[in-house]
């Protein structure tokens, strides 16, 4: 019996608007598509990657370093997709504006 793979990487919030409600919602939505368990961390605080309110509690402004940890079969893909969103500089894409 082997342990579930664990992947953890850190990313920097690039958006000038930080990780506000809409990108937090997108993060939670993307996290919910994976089978693995996903958590986001800032400093010593870790929150569920599938909870918008928990993600917002990280108060991640531009320049904040966040860690994404995933445990499970699709952990690598989950971390890479969430990291790409965290590091996106496109404020319109992160805000959902047209």
Could you give the topology of this structure?
Layout: E1 6-12, H1 21-32, E2 37-42, E3 45-48, H2 52-56, E4 65-71, H3 75-86, H4 91-95
Antiparallel strand pairs: 1-4, 2-3, 2-4
Written description of the protein model:
This protein is α+β, with helices and mostly antiparallel strands and 98 residues long. The chain has a single domain, classed as 2-Layer Sandwich (Histidine-containing Protein, Chain: A), CATH 3.30.1340.10. It is built from 4 helices and 4 strands. It has a 4-stranded antiparallel beta sheet, with helices on one face. Helix 1 (21-32) runs antiparallel to helix 3. The model is unreliable at 93-98 (pLDDT under 50).
Give a quick precis of the structure:
The chain is α+β, with helices and mostly antiparallel strands. It has a single domain, classed as HPr-like (Histidine-containing Protein, Chain: A).
**CATH 2nd-level architecture:** 2-Layer Sandwich
Number of helices: 4
Structural Rg? 13 Å
- State the strand order across the main sheet: 1-4-2-3
Poorly predicted tracts of residues: 93-98
Helix content: 25-40%
Keywords:
Histidine-containing Protein, Chain: A, 98 residues, four-stranded antiparallel β-sheet, disordered C terminus, globular, single chain, alpha+beta, 35% helix
């Amino acid at each position: 019996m082997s342990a579930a793979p664990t992947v953890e990487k850190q990313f920097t919030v690039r958006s000038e608007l930080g990780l506000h409600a809409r990108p937090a919602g997108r993060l939670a939505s993307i996290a919910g598509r994976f089978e693995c368990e996903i958590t986001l961390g800032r400093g010593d605080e870790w929150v569920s990657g599938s909870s918008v309110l928990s993600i917002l509690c990280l108060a991640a402004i531009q320049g904040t370093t966040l860690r994404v940890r995933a445990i499970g079969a699709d952990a690598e893909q989950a971390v890479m997709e969430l990291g790409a969103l965290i590091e996106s500089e496109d404020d319109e894409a992160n805000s959902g504006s047209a």
